[in-house]
Specification:
Length: about 60
């Protein structure tokens, strides 16, 4: 990751949205693996967004 906190936050929000879509698709198609994959993407996005906020807080 680079030093731009805002960019990390945007990528994190994108991963969260992608994860939510995968989860919903998994629910609609009754695919537990897709639901788990979606949750993983959402969690990754939340962590990525948090890293961006920390970078901004420390001026990196």
């Amino acid at each position: 990751m680079n030093g731009n906190g805002k960019e990390d936050q945007l990528k994190g929000k994108g991963n969260q949205a992608k994860g939510e879509l995968k989860k919903e698709w998994g629910k609609m198609t009754n695919d537990p693996e897709k639901i788990a994959e979606g949750q993983h993407d959402k969690d990754k996005g939340k962590a990525q967004e948090h890293v961006g906020k920390v970078k901004d807080a420390f001026g990196r």
